[in-house]
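Friendly challenge for the regulars: who can give me the structure tokens for this chain first? No prize, just bragging rights.
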Amino acid sequence: MMTQKVKSLVILFMFLAVIPATGCTAGNDNRRQQGPPPEAIAACKDKAVGDTVQFSGRRGETIEATCLEIEGQIVAVPEGMEGGRPPRD
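First reply, four minutes later:
Bragging rights claimed.
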């Protein structure tokens, strides 16, 4: 009788130990994307550093940007975000 309880507890603890591991491999849909959005990359395709472009943002708004080289890739950087963050009001 005692052995059955021990087996049940061991199985329960093993199951509980696996739950966090599966959470780590689940989709990362709730996290913000790292790096420039695909629209910012596409906007500067066939453009030179310093060219001005426009592209549609995540909410459909038009974003004015300048093509800059970041980590070996030319991407559209929105006005006011040249330092990597939006300006503070």
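The two ends are 69 Å apart (CA to CA). DSSP finds two helices and three strands in the chain. Your move, everyone else.
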